[in-house]
Amino acid sequence: MAVTFSDLHTEQGVKSVEDHLTGKTYISGDQLSVDDVKVYAAVSEKPSDAFPNASKWYDCVASHLAKSFPGKAVGVSIGGSAAQRIVIRHQQLLQLMKMMMTWICLVTRLRRKRKLLRRGRLLRRTPRSPKRVESHLCSWKLNHGMTRLT
Fold first, then answer.
1. Which domain, by its residues, includes 26?
2. 82-134, pLDDT tens digit by residue?
3. Among 50, 120, 124, 139, which is least packed, fewest CB within 10 Å?
4. Where are the alpha helices (DSSP H) in the chain?
């Protein structure tokens, strides 16, 4: 189910997030997702204490992002309109999402490779000589219940 938020830089927009987060920790699902990061980027500043759910959610997303970027932030303010700030945060968010997707793809590939190695479907090393190829094939046949042809 798609959720649409608008004017997140206004009090009315933050109120819509507050209402959506009633009884929830994250925007969609039960863990941090791209949806949370998108909404976080659109919210121009931490919600006030008048919005406890949105404020708690904002702190949670901020702490997860801080773990991803351990460098010390000194605080930067960007002049201009709210629309310009949203565009800049959106660009930063896109860079973060690209980095996260690259990391997720890498981890997925490594997990698949480990799974294949555990099941014996992936050779650990590439054989270099015909004798080694024959040895690998013979051991594979023996491991899979096939008789050795001589």
1. 11-93
2. 666 677 777 788 888 888 888 888 888 888 888 877 777 665 555 555 555 55
3. 124
4. 11-20, 34-42, 52-68, 82-119, 130-143
